[in-house]
Amino acid sequence: MSAGELSEKTIQDLLLKYTKEKNRVGLSVVKMVKTKISTEKGRLSNVSELPEAEILKIVKREMKEIQDTIDSYRKAGMADRVPEEEEKLRILESLLPSQLSDEDIRGLVAQVVAETGGRNFGQVMKAVMAKVAGRADGKRVSEIVKQALSPH
After folding, report:
1. Nearest 5°: CA angle at 90, between 88 and 95?
2. Per-residue pLDDT for 31 more than 60?
3. Same domain, yes or no, for 33 and 50?
């Protein structure tokens, strides 16, 4: 799914696909995302279509909640519930743009440091995250920026 733009139409198309396939897990995940999109549009009021960046935020927020649920199930000894949650996570991950490798991130960090002469962590992080644009986890980027800025 990472080819192309994530839009409300993409979500609607997935809803139809999972309905035809009778994919219960996929259907529940896509319905949940669709509901969150509607809620967000209502909150923003005069928006007819939610921008891709906002849909990505919703997807990532849901992924974090599901990961927290998986962790809770494991801690509570409820491992039988984990596979379904992992399936939900895989479906949500498929909506994200293709992720950058650590090497790609290092390249962006080096580029930002060279452009800005940046030694300031916050300044470098802000610039790198703008270039990454949702294609890497902030935690991974943070670790790589720390490595790049630490004296060798």
Report:
1. 100
2. yes
3. yes
